[in-house]
Amino acid sequence: MSAYRRILLKLSGEALGGESGFGLDAKRAGEIAAETAALVRSGVQVGLVLGGGNYFRGVRDAGDKLERTTVDAMGMLATVINALAFRDLLRAEGVPAETLSAIAMEPLAVRFDKERAVALLEAGTATLFAAGTGNPYFSTDTAASLRAIEIGADIVMKATKVDGVYDSDPKKNPAAKRYAKITYAEVLEKGLGVMDATAVALCRENRMPVLVFDLNDPGAMARAVAGESVGTLMS
Ligand code: UDP
Question: Does the pTM of the predicted model rise above 0.70?
Answer without folding.
Answer: yes
